Amino acid sequence: MKIKLIIIITLFFAVTMTSQEKLPYYEIPKMEENYSAQNTVARMIDGLGFRYYWSTESLRSEDLAYQPKGEGRDCQKTINHLYDLSNMMLRLTKTDFKQDKEKDKMTFLEMRKQTLLNLEALSNRIRLSKDLSEFTEKKDGEITIPFFNVINGPIADAIWHTGQVASFRRSSENPISSKVNHFTGTVRE
What is the reported pLDDT for 72? Predict the structure, then answer.
């Protein structure tokens, strides 16, 4: 009986500690007002991270299964696509960041966490760069992917799909917390 009680208590604390893990983008990080190109793009990523955090926070299984009428992705497939976009952005900016697990072995919570960590690593990489031109893809001395395509491609696409997740959860009657202020990137207590 004592052993069972110890195991139950240990499992309780393990689950509690795991669920209490602090993920990036609960709020948008403070930043000095320096409007360099790098800081501006990094701030776009931070805004995306904040919106992604809150659009995916406390999603239920019925939220993940929600699909609008028609032939679109369900919420979980949209979240999978957002994870893929975060990895594409890492690759296009030559940001080396370890993935904890293979995509097909991740749970929703693991994928959410990894996507948030990917966005944080991307923001930090861009903020610390000397010039955005270092992210321009070149092959044989010719530009093949200008950095502008990263902005209007995967960054803009990820913002779009994060909005879809927010809309899906509202449609499945689980709206984002009213304490979230998307304008300031903060949360009222």
Answer: 87
